[in-house]
């Protein structure tokens, strides 16, 4: 979509009309979840598994990145994480206690095919044991193939800037299916390719920590090509497999709907964050305006004949990760049009830059909404707007359902003497966003499930262990797990199938 100034301004006016109270409203008592709605929780391999060099696993790009001075807060790493590799039975028992319908987890490429080479049977056997444990507990395994842990050996050959990596990804996908496909029927190819391209190769915030806009554009395309090649290979092997992709999406509003520079800024963010992935996957094309915005950094010959047909192969579902929306301005702090040169910044001793390739001059504008410990605004109504927009413009015409595959919040948890955390803010965040999902369903959006992020406190990428998203607390010294108030609330929901109120 190429949003016009009128449609973008209209959306912004809707957002502006939402008061702070509305943005954080608790779910109403008795609001029933849709029939058959899946309630689950999500994690990622590198963030929880640990066992970094056990049973044949070799370094991923995140193992390497964690060793770079200043890359990760406190120099934290995933060597132990929360030791899920050895404690998975305990963790599955927790899931059963919470009444989860499904568990979304990722396999580690560096564990399954270390160094991007031959299959490692010991690595696959871990996931086979995990799947059996889940099925034995009545929990549906929902597998993600790539949650950012590219084998370092493949990065040494160019990583996602190298077209060959897309083909290696398809091989890896087939290897996982060969081992688990008899029991795992839902497979997501990629998680949040925006993060593993623009945040990783342009902004320098995620592994491998590069700051080259052209590399980021190339990585984005090759990630999508890998997705398409994997879908094709898996469909050929197993026609009944349910396949999808997960995109992190936002709601982009102009800071001032009457200011043309802000309307254009919102269009640019929507293009560089949402449509650069939605359009090739669901429409078989890159948006013209995005190509123009990124023209200076778009590599010649990047998109080859047949690429977009592979990337837009039919899917069975779209996964949506939503944490917050945002308002953007194209004006400098002094109110004049911003210079389109690239601002640079140094944080933690390392250079960072904007992930918005070709639009580095844009600025986010706070709106007075509550924020999480990440500094992200709390905007549940944005999720409703996003899901309705997807239904009207993308998933509805494509005839595929949506699952909210991640939604959650970090807050400054304070445990009591027994390690229990009364995280009322997180409970109300989840309740408000689940209410927003039911609003979208009432408005016609085909949304069939919700996975809270995250089951456990864990390694939060560049923030190390300093930010906690889990509904279950992990004591990082003892690795003891303690369900928080939010977990107990979620367990009530999974059993009642009706949203309780935001208090008590």
From TrEMBL:
Region described as Disordered: 1-32
PROSITE patterns for the chain: GLYCOSYL_HYDROL_F1_1
GO biological process, one term: carbohydrate catabolic process
Active site: 406
GO cellular component: cytosol
E.C. designation(s): 3.2.1.21
Keyword Phosphoprotein: no
UniProt KW keywords: Glycosidase, Hydrolase
GO MF, one example: beta-glucosidase activity
Family: Belongs to the glycosyl hydrolase 1 family.
PANTHER family: GLYCOSYL HYDROLASE (PTHR10353), LP05116P (PTHR10353:SF36)
Name of the molecule in the record: beta-glucosidase
Organism: Georgenia muralis
Lineage: Bacteria, Bacillati, Actinomycetota, Actinomycetes, Micrococcales
């Amino acid at each position: 979509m190429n949003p016009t100034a009128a449609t973008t301004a209209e959306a912004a006016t809707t957002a502006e009309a939402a008061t702070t109270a509305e943005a954080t409203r608790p779910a109403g008592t008795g609001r029933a979840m849709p029939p058959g709605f899946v309630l689950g929780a999500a994690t990622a391999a590198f963030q929880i598994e640990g066992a970094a060099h056990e049973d044949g696993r070799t370094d991923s790009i995140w193992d390497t990145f964690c060793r770079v001075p200043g890359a990760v807060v406190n120099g934290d790493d995933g060597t132990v994480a929360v030791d899920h590799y050895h404690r998975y039975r305990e963790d599955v028992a927790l899931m059963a206690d919470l009444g989860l319908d499904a568990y979304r987890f990722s396999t580690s490429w560096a564990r399954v095919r270390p160094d991007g080479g031959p299959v490692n049977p010991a690595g696959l056997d871990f996931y086979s044991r995990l799947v059996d444990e889940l099925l034995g507990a009545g929990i549906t395994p929902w597998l993600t193939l790539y949650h950012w842990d590219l084998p370092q050996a493949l990065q040494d050959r160019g990583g996602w800037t190298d077209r060959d990596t897309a083909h290696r990804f398809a091989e890896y996908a087939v290897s996982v299916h060969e081992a688990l496909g008899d029991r795992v029927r839902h497979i997501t190819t990629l998680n949040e390719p925006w993060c593993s391209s623009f945040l990783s190769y342009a902004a320098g915030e995620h592994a491998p920590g590069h700051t080259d806009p052209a590399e980021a554009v190339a990585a984005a395309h090759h990630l999508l090509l890998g997705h398409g090649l994997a879908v094709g290979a898996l469909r050929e092997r197993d026609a009944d497999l349910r396949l999808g992709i997960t995109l992190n999406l936002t709601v982009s509003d102009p800071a001032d709907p009457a200011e043309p520079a802000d309307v254009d800024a919102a269009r640019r963010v929507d293009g560089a964050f949402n449509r650069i992935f939605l359009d090739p996957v669901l429409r078989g094309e890159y948006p013209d305006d995005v190509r123009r915005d990124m023209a200076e950094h778009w590599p010649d010959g990047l998109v080859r004949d047949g690429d977009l047909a592979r990337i837009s192969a039919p899917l069975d579902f779209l996964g949506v990760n939503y944490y917050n929306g945002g308002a953007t301005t194209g004006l400098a702090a002094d109110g004049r049009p911003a210079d389109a040169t690239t601002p640079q910044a140094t944080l933690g001793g390392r250079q960072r830059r904007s992930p918005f390739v070709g639009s580095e001059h844009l600025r986010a504008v706070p709106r007075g909404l509550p924020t999480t410990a990440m500094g992200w605004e709390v905007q549940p109504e944005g999720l409703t707007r996003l899901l309705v927009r997807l239904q009207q413009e993308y998933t509805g015409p494509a005839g595929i359902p949506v699952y909210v595959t991640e939604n959650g919040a970090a807050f400054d948890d304070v445990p009591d003497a027994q390690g229990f955390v009364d995280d009322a803010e997180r409970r109300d965040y989840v309740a408000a966003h689940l209410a927003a999902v039911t609003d979208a369903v009432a408005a016609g959006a085909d949304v069939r499930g919700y996975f809270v992020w995250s089951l456990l406190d864990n390694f939060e990428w560049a923030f190390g262990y300093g930010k906690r998203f889990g509904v279950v607390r992990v004591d990082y010294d003892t690795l003891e797990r303690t369900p928080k108030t939010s977990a107990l609330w979620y367990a009530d929901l999974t059993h009642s199938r009706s949203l309780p109120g935001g208090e008590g």
